[in-house]
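Write out this protein's structure.
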Amino acid sequence: MQKIQLGQSDLRVAPICLGTMTFGEQVDEPTAHAILHRSLERGVDFIDTAEMYAVPARKETCGATETIIGNWFAKNPGVRGKVVLATKVAGPSRGMPWIREGSGMTAADIVASCEGSLRRLQTDVIDLYQIHWPERHVPAFGNMYYDPSRETSQTPIREQLEALAGLVKAGKVRAIGLSNETPYGVHEFVRLAEQHGLPRVASVQNVYNLLHRGVENGLDETMHRLGVSLLAYSPLGFGLLTGKYDESGITGPSAPQNARITRYESVRKQRWGRPEALAAARRYNALAAATGMTPTQFALAFCYSKWQVASTIIGVTSLAQLDENIDTWGHRLSQDVLAEVDKLRWEMRDPAI
């Protein structure tokens, strides 16, 4: 796998990124360390985590994922220098008072969160430090519409950038990024950075898969013109695009009992639990079979084939899943197959947006 440059930063990363939000909830520490080892052996040296992980978010597991990764670094001297490490500062509480109180995310919050991540990760520097979701009220995580009456913003974007600039200047962060962002947010972060000599965002980490192609509703043009890279998360649509729910649905007797949607009611209540999302997934999974690919291969090849995507974030719970996802790297969807995908999207749109 050829390395790609993240935005205009000096970070060069693998086109596949290991997502770790299952570490500390579905995945225990020994298994997580085995996955990390195998990932690095296979050339996936880009690791993404967050202060709020593991997921589903609970007070008891907040920070657990970073701690597991930090313990891996401590047990394996020299490995830290071989990976590009990304983590995220949580935005406003969103019902998680154990992260921070109130509806805002102050400059002091950003600095304190970074210090906490550095301690848990047992490292001196974070390669890519991202804002997990905007401090502003935006349509995200299944909310479709922007509602100005719900705006609670307290910390201007320039103030957020200045806090991040302080971390970069102190040598604690190499580059910065965003997540779950909108075209407006990306434009404003870049505009203010260029106007005031502040760090420029290198990347945006947003959901992108066959069931949720919202990136292509204008954000892709924004990122292309501004030189910002897309990190695509949830390429398998929380498992819907693996085919494992096709026969019995997400709550049927043959649904895998340890899978996230089956196991966690909070996940089923989100966009991935919509009947429309499962119905669309079944159609895409059938198209995968018609092309001679497994649903997992097809869904990942979709992301691997798209010019919009710089690196695809894969989340796994076993070595077998990791190997399958990495093995798919050589697969690409032809223009004819992508045209068939677009026909299905025209019919079903984005049911998990």
